[in-house]
Design a protein that fits this description.
- By secondary structure, the chain is mainly alpha-helical.
- It has one domain.
- The chain is 53% helix and 12% strand.
- The chain has a two-stranded antiparallel ribbon with strand order 1-2.
- It is globular and about 35 Å long.
Length: 104
């Protein structure tokens, strides 16, 4: 079960429930994936609405690994979410809000 006080969310991907969390290590992984950009620059990119499928894969993958799941980005790319692309974006946004805005 996800603990909102730790920035965790729960999401269903490919019919399985997962806990996702952008831990400090997961955030460092994202900085590396974005060529060393800092978190503020990455967040500004997302706030400007510049979100692609590869962004969703990276962020959701990092969140899955931060939640203790052993999964690669290639595996995330083959997962499904209820609602299709909109479902993935909902998970993406919920995870970022839980991490940076403290919203459950």
């Amino acid at each position: 079960m996800a603990n909102a006080h730790r920035g965790e969310i729960e999401a269903e991907l490919s019919g399985q429930r997962y806990v996702l969390c952008l831990t400090l290590g997961a955030l460092a992984e994202l900085e590396h994936a974005y060529g060393g950009e800092d978190l503020i620059t990455i967040a500004q990119r997302f706030e400007a609405g510049k979100i692609g499928a590869s962004d969703a894969i990276r962020v959701i993958g990092a969140g899955l690994r931060g939640g203790g799941n052993t999964v690669t980005d290639d595996e995330v790319a083959t997962m499904t979410a209820a609602g299709g692309a909109q479902g993935f974006l909902t998970i993406f946004v919920r995870l970022l809000r839980a991490t940076f805005a403290g919203e459950p």
